[in-house]
Design goal:
Elements: H1 3-22, E1 66-69, E2 73-78, E3 83-93, H2 100-103, E4 109-113, E5 125-127, H3 129-132, E6 143-150, E7 153-161, E8 166-175, E9 180-189, E10 199-205, E11 223-228, E12 234-238, H4 239-242, E13 247-250, E14 258-264, E15 268-274, H5 277-282, E16 283-291, H6 294-307, H7 314-323, E17 327-337, E18 344-355, H8 371-374, H9 381-398, H10 401-447, H11 452-465, H12 473-494, E19 516-522, E20 525-528, H13 530-544, H14 552-572, H15 577-602
Antiparallel strand pairs: 1-2, 2-3, 3-4, 5-10, 6-7, 7-8, 8-9, 9-18, 10-17, 11-12, 11-14, 13-16, 14-15, 15-18, 16-17, 19-20
Helix pairs in contact: 1-14, 9-10, 9-12, 10-11, 10-12, 10-15, 12-15, 13-14, 13-15
Length: 603
Amino acid sequence: MDRRTYTALALCMLFFLAFQMLRPRAPIEPVIGEVPPAEQPQSVPSSTAPQATVQSPVLVELNENIRVETDLFAARFSNRGAVLLELHSKRFFTEPRFSEAQKGDPSNWLPFILDMDPSARSLLWTVHSSSQGGPDIQSAHWSLEGPLFRDGFTELLFHHRTADGFRFEKSFRFKEGSHEILVDLSLTRDESETERRGTLSCSLVSAANLRGDRTAQYALPPSAVVAFGSDPDFDSFSAKELKDEHRDVVTDNERRRVRFFGTESNYFAVVLAPLDSTSREAVTSVRCNAVLDQPALEESLQQYRNEHGGAITASKEESLREAHENNARATALLRMVIPDDPQTTRLSYRLYAGPKSGLVMADETYADYRSLYEKDYGRMAWINEALLWILRQFHRLTGNWGFAIILLTLLVKILLFPLNRAQSRTMEDFQKKMARLKPELDAIKEKHKNNLRKFGEEQRRLMQQHQVRTPFFGCLIIFAQLPVFFGLFQILRSSFDLRHQPFFGWMRDLSQPDACPLPFSVFGLQSLNVLPILMVIAMVWNTRMMPKSQDPQAAQMRSMMMIMNFVFGIFLYGYAAGLSLYMLTNALLGIAQFKLLRTTSAT
């Protein structure tokens, strides 16, 4: 190989090394404590909820164990500030392939919201008293009416009356089968108080503590998101971007009225969307901040102390703190009009807590949130959606997403078979012509053995004289498969369909590395990703079966492809097993195809 080839290979290796070093790291796996049994009368079992309106005793003391359950959610509230402390999904779980008994265990339910940071609790409503003279409602103990059952909803109604004559109300309404929770904020002025005009400057925290689902390399980290109007795009800021400084997104003009704001992870989102124009216009800006995962930090600190005899340096503590500042929140600045008696100012929002799934969001109820998963597909969205549709059809046929990927690979091979057959025939003809030119090429090579540039010029002149052209089908076939490769790369990274989907044996989740358990530890490793290793072996075997060429350029291309096989192995070792399965199947089918075409040409 000449110097340019070596330079190109070195640049490729440097690129992939930098990509590995700078890739987004997978969020820390949640450690979810068991949810204690609900206490009556605050617990609301969905199966026994009466149809008539029921009211619990009003709470005036601190209570941080107010619970509501539906068929989809298990929620825990505090009446200090009337905030949502925890929200768990009863449909999605922290690990794949749980038994029915395990699915009923609250410790296995996936957390949408956790009580990570007392200073950043979800749905916290604050009046900015320093500038507006408003009351302190975020640390007050609110009274509770409920649970109430009316119009098909389970409702918690918190209210708090301040000394300066304001009544604040915050209600949460749950509905069976819905991924949305309706949140209402209302402000009423006591008619006995002196008149006061103008507006109150308030803020409302969306889901502050959406902990990232355990995902493979290159997965999307937890991020704060803000969307506007009908624009399919939206602003997104990862926790890493927000560590150094917050980001303010101004929304107080007609074109940038907020559509939703909140937090997303790789597969899920918890976002607030205004329910009407008044609530939308009340949002003047959204501030995005990083959030410290305090429970995970304390666990890591304790683990470090146990391993190092209780000693921990300030620098180590700071590094662990930075590592656990891996969540984000979005806080809306609200402008609420102080009402004239006996009117009430009311702002209404929808809290969506669920998967970023095209199948779930096909329901028009969730149409506002579709951009959350559409953006993950990027500019190749139509290719990705087509591939996902094909995979779904194969999944319906086989009942297994791994076999669906294999059938997709087979389909691509069948569609490209005419090109492969044409390439095989062209290469065969090229080899025969080059064999006839070999004596002359050997003479040119001997004559210019110390001048590679001159040898290349003479070789090209000789090939043009005899009308011998280097086949281009190889590159054409590679480029034809690139959309499938990049499409699967994005689908396996972000498509909810493939989350926690098994293949067989130890491969329990195609969206994760296959992580085959080892019978003993090897260099500290308890498991090994087998599919990428098998993929490299098959790809090397496939490359070695390619016919050797007398053309130096073709020989250089073959050598480069051999090196790229190992680069792909490094690149995909920690990626989703589904993509390695595709590449492995593609290489094995390529080997079978070479043998078939050789047999066909021989006959």
